[in-house]
Every structure is written in structure tokens, then in C-alpha cells.
Amino acid sequence: xxxxxxxxxxxxxxxxxxxxxxxxxxxxxxxxxxxxxxxxxxxxxxxxxxxxxxxxxxxxxxxxxxxxxxxxxxxxxxxxxxxxxxxxxxxxxxxxxxxxxxxxxxxxxxxxxxxxxxxxxxxxxxxxxxxxxxxxxxxxxxxxxxxxxxxxxxxxxxxxxxxxxxxxxxxxxxxxxxxxxxxxxxxxxxxxxxxxxxxxxxxxxxxxxxxxxxxxxxxxxxxxxxxxxxxxxxxxxxxxxxxxxxxxxxxxxxxxxxxxx
Length: 261
Known about the structure:
Number of helices: 9
Pfam families: DUF1264 (PF06884)
Distance between the termini: 40 Å
Keywords: Signal
Protein name: DUF1264 domain-containing protein
Strand content: 15-25%
Shape: globular
InterPro entries: OBAP-like
Helix content: 25-40%
Number of strands: 9
Largest sheet: 6 strands, antiparallel, barrel
Strand order of the largest sheet: 1-2-3-4-6-7
């Protein structure tokens, strides 16, 4: 299994290393939280269970860019749940503080499952080989041995990522429609200032991490992944009709469909 570290121990490590050092990137409008709402929040925290949230056991920090717009780059804080040996899911935030904004989601599958996908579906996914081998993807707080074991399991996986709040440009509220995101695949693609800022906040050296992961075996990316490199850019566009979300002949107004510009 990918859950390589006891949750309690991991939580202690996370509290000491790599948490509360990346504040939210936006300030949302709204009145201050009232005392009555705070009381409700406290009561719910004590009385309600949250199994899906409790199942989150791994924190990964990496970078994404908009499919078709490599200049639109941002840091992404992934909080990951391991569903089974071949499937993980992550909620993605713009920071690692309590008020971090939920940016989107990423589904992560094994190379074995990726090979079973239809050709058109494969175009929505990106590889993780470079992210792992380059040291740009990190697991804050994990000891080197645990980090190395985790990255060996991630290196040949594939991710499908949708961002619903584009915090690099929408600084108050989540505006517009979701965007398909991609991961970097080679040196020179990523803004070096973005990486340097991340390394400074987490007190890590991505070059040193790259060297430590030199022995991790990365397979060549499977055909179909990282389709943007072959000029196949897919993003949502507004259109009329129900698209893939329609049921029968009833339409409820504008919807979003996958289109290739």
C-alpha cells in the first residue's frame, strides 16, 4: 500500500515541518465569522464524524500549469487519500494554512490502469515521472527514507487534475469554469522563481532531492499522456445543450463540454 507512515506519526511530522508556511493566495469578501457560527462550527467539530477527511493521510506539494497555457503556473498543495493499490484521490489547496482555498481535485492511477483507458481519455492525464525525478514534487515532513519509498510508488503514476478556483488570477471568489491542468515534463518549463520560493518556505533543496532520487526507476511516459506536447490542447468551453451531463432530452440551460480549440 502507498500508506507508508502511521497517520499519527505523520501528523506530528507535518505539524513540525511543512505546515502553516504557505498562506492562502486570495482574500474573499464577506463579513467576519459571527460568534453563533463559530459556536456551530465548534459543536459540529465535536459531534460529527468525517471519515473521508480522516482518510487523508499524505501531503504532497508540487506544481501545475493550465493545459495549453504554460505561462499559467502555480503551486498546488495536495492532500491525498489512498483508495487502493492503483487509485488515489487528492484535494488541492492554494496553501497549507487553515484558511487555504480549495483549488481543485486530482485523481491518480497506476500505470497499469492508465494503459486500459480509451485513447481520448488518455489525453486528459499527465505523467508524474519528471515531477518525482526532478525533485519538484515533495512530501513535506517525511524522513528521506519514507519520502524515497513513497516517490517510488508515485513515479510511474498518472494524474487527471481539474482546478475549480484559479487563485493565481481570481483573488476573491472562484470565477468561471474548471480548467484542466498539466504537470511539467522537462527542465526549463517551470518558472525557476516559483520553485525557489517553494524551496525557501519549506527549507528544502530540490536539486539535492533530485540527486537523492537518482536511483528511482521512471518508465517512459505512456503514449497519449501529456497530450499538450503533441499540440492536443483540451479545455472546457461554454456551449449550449446538456453535453455529457444531460439526461434524456431535458436541458436546463448552458453547460460545459470538452472541446479542442
